[in-house]
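We examine the record.

___
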Amino acid sequence: MKKKQQYETSAMIAMIALIGMVVSLTINIAIGKSTIEEEAIPPMRTEYHYEWTPTPLEQRKMDSLYAIDASTKSDMDSIRSMIDNILDKLE
Protein backbone atom coordinates (compact mmCIF):
# COMPACT_ATOMS: atom_id res chain seq x y z
CA MET A 1 0.00 0.00 0.00
CA LYS A 2 2.78 2.41 0.91
CA LYS A 3 4.76 1.61 -2.28
CA LYS A 4 1.71 2.33 -4.42
CA GLN A 5 1.19 5.66 -2.67
CA GLN A 6 4.87 6.57 -3.13
CA TYR A 7 4.66 5.63 -6.80
CA GLU A 8 1.58 7.77 -7.33
CA THR A 9 3.22 10.71 -5.54
CA SER A 10 6.39 10.35 -7.62
CA ALA A 11 4.37 10.15 -10.82
CA MET A 12 2.41 13.28 -9.88
CA ILE A 13 5.61 15.22 -9.10
CA ALA A 14 7.21 14.09 -12.36
CA MET A 15 4.11 15.10 -14.33
CA ILE A 16 3.99 18.54 -12.72
CA ALA A 17 7.72 19.04 -13.38
CA LEU A 18 7.30 18.01 -17.01
CA ILE A 19 4.36 20.35 -17.52
CA GLY A 20 6.36 23.17 -15.92
CA MET A 21 9.32 22.55 -18.23
CA VAL A 22 7.10 22.49 -21.32
CA VAL A 23 5.37 25.72 -20.33
CA SER A 24 8.63 27.52 -19.52
CA LEU A 25 10.26 26.38 -22.77
CA THR A 26 7.23 27.51 -24.75
CA ILE A 27 7.33 30.95 -23.11
CA ASN A 28 11.09 31.26 -23.66
CA ILE A 29 10.75 30.34 -27.31
CA ALA A 30 7.88 32.80 -27.80
CA ILE A 31 9.86 35.61 -26.15
CA GLY A 32 13.04 34.72 -28.00
CA LYS A 33 11.38 34.71 -31.42
CA SER A 34 9.68 38.05 -30.91
CA THR A 35 12.91 39.99 -30.33
CA ILE A 36 15.26 39.70 -33.32
CA GLU A 37 17.98 42.30 -33.51
CA GLU A 38 18.46 43.95 -36.87
CA GLU A 39 22.23 43.45 -36.66
CA ALA A 40 21.77 39.68 -36.35
CA ILE A 41 20.14 39.49 -39.79
CA PRO A 42 22.77 39.49 -42.54
CA PRO A 43 22.15 41.77 -45.49
CA MET A 44 20.91 40.03 -48.62
CA ARG A 45 22.69 40.31 -51.93
CA THR A 46 20.23 40.74 -54.71
CA GLU A 47 22.65 40.88 -57.63
CA TYR A 48 24.40 37.64 -58.61
CA HIS A 49 25.66 38.16 -62.12
CA TYR A 50 28.53 35.82 -62.86
CA GLU A 51 29.02 34.31 -66.27
CA TRP A 52 31.36 31.35 -66.42
CA THR A 53 33.46 30.86 -69.51
CA PRO A 54 35.59 27.71 -69.60
CA THR A 55 39.29 27.93 -70.21
CA PRO A 56 40.76 25.91 -73.10
CA LEU A 57 41.98 23.27 -70.62
CA GLU A 58 38.54 22.97 -69.03
CA GLN A 59 36.98 22.76 -72.50
CA ARG A 60 39.30 19.87 -73.46
CA LYS A 61 38.46 18.06 -70.21
CA MET A 62 34.72 18.47 -70.82
CA ASP A 63 35.08 17.25 -74.40
CA SER A 64 36.96 14.16 -73.24
CA LEU A 65 34.32 13.48 -70.59
CA TYR A 66 31.57 13.76 -73.21
CA ALA A 67 33.49 11.31 -75.41
CA ILE A 68 33.88 8.89 -72.50
CA ASP A 69 30.17 9.22 -71.73
CA ALA A 70 29.22 8.51 -75.34
CA SER A 71 31.48 5.44 -75.56
CA THR A 72 30.12 4.13 -72.24
CA LYS A 73 26.55 4.50 -73.49
CA SER A 74 27.49 2.70 -76.70
CA ASP A 75 29.12 -0.12 -74.71
CA MET A 76 26.03 -0.41 -72.49
CA ASP A 77 23.78 -0.65 -75.55
CA SER A 78 25.93 -3.37 -77.10
CA ILE A 79 26.03 -5.31 -73.82
CA ARG A 80 22.25 -4.97 -73.52
CA SER A 81 21.76 -6.31 -77.05
CA MET A 82 24.12 -9.24 -76.34
CA ILE A 83 22.18 -10.08 -73.19
CA ASP A 84 18.92 -9.94 -75.16
CA ASN A 85 20.39 -12.31 -77.77
CA ILE A 86 21.50 -14.74 -75.05
CA LEU A 87 18.07 -14.64 -73.42
CA ASP A 88 16.44 -15.28 -76.80
CA LYS A 89 18.64 -18.31 -77.34
CA LEU A 90 17.81 -19.66 -73.89
CA GLU A 91 14.09 -19.47 -74.56
The mean pLDDT is 84. Residues 1-35 form one domain. The chain is about 75% helix and 0% strand. The chain has two domains: 1-35, 55-91.
